[in-house]
Amino acid sequence: MFWKSFVFAILIAIGFGCSGDSAELTNALESITAADLSADVQVLGSDEFEGRKPSSPGEEKTISFLKEEFQKLGLQPGNGDSYFQEVPLVEITSNSDSKLNIKGKNKSATF
Question: How far is CA 64 from CA 21, 52, 57, 59, 108, in A?
Answer without folding.
Answer: 31, 12, 11, 9, 51
